[in-house]
Amino acid sequence: MSSSSLSPAGRMSGSDGDSAVDTHRREKRRLSNRESARRSRLRKQQHLDELVQEVARLQAENARVAARAADIGSQYARVEQENTVLRARAAELGDRLRSVNEVLRVVEEFSGVAMDIQEEMPADDPLLRPWQLPYPAAAMPIGGAHMLQY
After folding, report:
1. Quick one: which H or E segment has residue 75?
2. CA–CA distance, 135 with 31 (Å, rounded to integer)
């Protein structure tokens, strides 16, 4: 069966006029489909370009984060090494303190003079925390601008 015989009642004749209208409609639909497919390809290409740009941006960001993580890791290793050295130094100083205390005990025993022997350094000793001021910052006397003049 031809497509013209399936058409609505007005086109059953199969004449050349109806065939030209059908041909025109098919051609119009074909052009519309081509244009729609072209727009679809353009949208897909644009989306692909956006994804490629995002991949490049994310790779650059990933490289920056990896470099920062490596930098932090090396800083951590350096601080950890410094802590190990400081712990060893603290143990050495503790041993020296015990040795000095032993000498002081011997001197005290033989001289009969009482010595102030500390078994351990006090926790609040400012020498143990050189990064802190030995007095509160609020208690520091602050003078006027005239104190800065020569």
Report:
1. helix 16-111
2. 88
| Residue 62 and residue 70 in contact, taking contact as beta carbons nearer than 8 Å | no
Tell me what pLDDT residue 125 has: 64
Q: What pLDDT digit, counting tens, does each position of 64-112 carry?
A: 999 999 999 999 999 999 999 999 999 999 899 889 889 888 888 888 8
- Pair of tokens at residue 143: 């003078």
* Amino acid residing at 56: A
Once rounded to an integer, what is the mean pLDDT over residues 36-56? 98
**DSSP 8-state class, residue 26:** H
How far is residue 21's CA from residue 94's CA, in Å, rounded to a whole number?
Answer: 106
Query: How many CA atoms, within 13 angstroms, populate the side-chain half-sphere of residue 119?
Result: 0
Side-chain half-sphere CA neighbours of 116 within 13 A:
1
Q: What angle do CA 128, 132, 134 make, to 5 degrees?
A: 85
pLDDT over 90 (residue 29): yes
DSSP 140: S
Residue at 74: amino acid letter: S
Distance CA 89, CA 78 (A): 16
